[in-house]
């Protein structure tokens, strides 16, 4: 959820290529590496591992940090994943990868 919010609101500024979103012919702005957004997957993995190691361990059922009392494990994971995704979008090469749809926008 955090990454979806960061992607649509903060990074894309609510602009979306509907031609690519509905898979119209010759519009492939959202065809990342075989359908996987590698940056997004990396952010999910990093956020989940960080949550398990430092906030909440679901195997033992113990809170590892007092931040768990404020956000729970999934809340922290959502916020941290969205923040990581936004920070990744600030790197020029990552931003270019994430915003492949900018040349495909019909209405600006």
What would the principal axes of the Cα set say about the shape? Answer: elongated
Secondary structure: number of strands: 2
Q: Any low-confidence stretches, pLDDT <50, length ≥5?
A: none
Secondary-structure element series: HHHEEHH
Q: Radius of gyration from the CA trace?
A: 16 Å
Helices and strands: which structural class? mainly alpha
Describe this structure in words.
With 108 residues, the protein is mainly alpha-helical. It is 56% helix and 4% strand. It has five helices and two strands; from the N terminus they run αααββαα. A hairpin with a 4-residue loop joins strand 1 (56-57) and strand 2. Helix 1 (2-11) packs across helix 4 and helix 3 (38-54) runs antiparallel to helix 4. The two termini are 25 Å apart. The mean pLDDT is 88.
Keywords:
single chain; 5 helices; 4% strand
Brief summary of the model shown:
With 108 residues, the chain is mostly helical. 56% of the residues lie in helices and 4% in strands.
Task: List the topology elements.
Elements: H1 2-11, H2 18-21, H3 38-54, E1 56-57, E2 62-63, H4 67-89, H5 92-98
Antiparallel strand pairs: 1-2
């Amino acid at each position: 959820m955090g990454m979806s919010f960061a992607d649509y609101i903060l990074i894309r500024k609510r602009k979306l290529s509907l031609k690519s979103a509905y898979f119209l012919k010759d519009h492939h702005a959202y065809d990342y590496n075989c359908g996987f957004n590698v940056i997004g997957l990396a952010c999910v993995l990093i956020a989940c591992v960080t949550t398990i190691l430092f906030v909440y361990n679901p195997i033992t059922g113990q809170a590892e940090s007092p931040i768990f009392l404020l956000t729970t494990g999934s809340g922290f994971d959502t916020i941290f994943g969205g923040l990581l995704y936004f920070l990744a979008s600030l790197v020029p090469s990552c931003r270019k990868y994430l915003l492949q749809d900018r040349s495909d926008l019909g209405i600006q």
